[in-house]
Amino acid sequence: MTGRPPRSAQHSAAPAPRSPTRCSVALRLAGRMLRFPAYCAAALRAALDGAPHPVADLPLDDDEDRLVPARRLLTEGLVVPAPSGLP
């Protein structure tokens, strides 16, 4: 999957700053906000950095943990499947 660059200054797909007391991480989008558990922050940064990443390489503990944010990012249109043959 490949992260899409923001469409405008109001559309920021970067995770909100980290806080030691934060239980979740939020992605601010035009008109809405997506929340993920705080442990997904590193995986979200990786998925949204614009480079192709196999879901299996996202820095989470197991495949199920990797699939949940990947599917949600795909559903929301924040990432797209990479063409086959790319790492």
What characteristic shape results from the CA principal axes?
globular
How far apart, in Å, are the first and last alpha carbons?
Answer: 10 Å
Main sheet?
Answer: 2 strands, antiparallel
Can you give the mean pLDDT?
81
Which H/E pattern describes the elements?
A: EEEHHE
Question: Roughly what fraction of the amino acids lie in strands?
Answer: 15-25%
Low-confidence stretches: 5-12
Number of strands: 4
Radius of gyration: 13 Å
- Helix content percent band: 10-25%
Instruction: Give the strand line-up of the largest sheet.
Output: 1-4
Count every helix, treating DSSP H or I runs of 4 or more residues as helices.
2
Given the helix and strand composition, which structural class is it? alpha+beta
Walk me through this protein's architecture.
23% of the residues lie in helices and 18% in strands. The protein is α+β, with helices and mostly antiparallel strands. The protein has a domain of 56 residues. The strands form two sheets. Strands 1-4 form a two-stranded antiparallel ribbon. The chain has a two-stranded antiparallel ribbon with strand order 2-3. Strand 2 and strand 3 form a beta hairpin. The radius of gyration is 13 Å and the shape is globular. About 9% of the residues have low confidence.
Task: Please write out the topology.
Elements: E1 2-3, E2 24-29, E3 32-37, H1 41-47, H2 63-75, E4 79-80
Antiparallel strand pairs: 1-4, 2-3
